[in-house]
Specification:
- The two termini are 24 Å apart.
- The C terminus is likely disordered.
- Helices cover 38% and strands 15% of the residues.
- The chain is built from four helices and three strands.
- It is of the alpha+beta class.
Length: 105
Amino acid sequence: ALQYALENQCHFIICPCCYVKRYLAPFVPFWHSFCDEEEVDALGRLVELDDRPEESRRSMVVINSMRKQAFGGKQVAVSLEEFDSRISKRNIALVGDSTSLTQIL
């Protein structure tokens, strides 16, 4: 979906909610390259702490900031946006606008 959005200069939003998901080999999420295995596991567990919302939120910001780095050097502007936590406790989204940079160039 991300590749399609980039190739077609689409606006997009990614609402990640699975932080402790097990991935099928050979796929490894980009953000894992910034951490060792213990850190990946710890951050994933911290995100899931429903009884400690501030620690959960900070961990989501850290993980999604690393996810955002996957777009570095591409013709797309990506920001982290936070929506009402009453809708979802995993409420941080990556919002991309692939036309904003290409219109300037």
